[in-house]
């Protein structure tokens, strides 16, 4: 199982030390850029699911291209 945690910087070192002591847990730090990318992807997937359920209206592709 993979799990993403959002931890305050001043508490992260302590938690990482605890997790490293557990032989069944592997920790991997990710960059701020990758973290932001993952959050944006999560939001995009949530929005896509809302569009599929009819709870959110999608923008036409032309409008999206014009915004670029």
Quick summary of this structure?
The chain is mainly alpha-helical and about 70 residues long. It has helices at about 10-20, 30-50, 60-65.
Topology:
Elements: H1 9-20, H2 32-52, H3 61-67
Radius of gyration: 18 Å
Instruction: Note the beta-strand portion.
Output: under 5%
Give the low-pLDDT segments: none
Order of H and E elements: HHH
Biggest β-sheet: count, sense, barrel? none
Mean pLDDT: 91
How many individual helices? Answer: 3
What is the 3D shape? elongated
Number of spatially distinct domains: 1
Q: How many E-type strands?
A: 0
| Structural class computed from helices and strand pairing | mainly alpha
Query: Helix proportion of residues, in percent?
Result: 55-70%
Distance between the termini: 37 Å
Descriptive keywords:
elongated; mainly alpha; 68 residues; 3 helices
Question: What do you see in this structure?
Answer:
The chain contains three helices and no strands. The chain has one domain (9-67). The mean pLDDT is 91. The protein has 68 residues and is mainly α.
């Amino acid at each position: 199982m993979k799990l993403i945690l959002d931890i305050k910087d001043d508490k992260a070192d302590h938690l990482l030390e605890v997790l490293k002591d557990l032989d069944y847990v592997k920790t991997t730090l990710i960059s701020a850029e990758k973290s932001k990318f993952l959050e944006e992807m999560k939001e995009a997937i949530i929005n896509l699911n809302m569009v599929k359920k009819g709870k959110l209206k999608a923008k036409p592709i032309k409008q999206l291209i014009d915004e670029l």
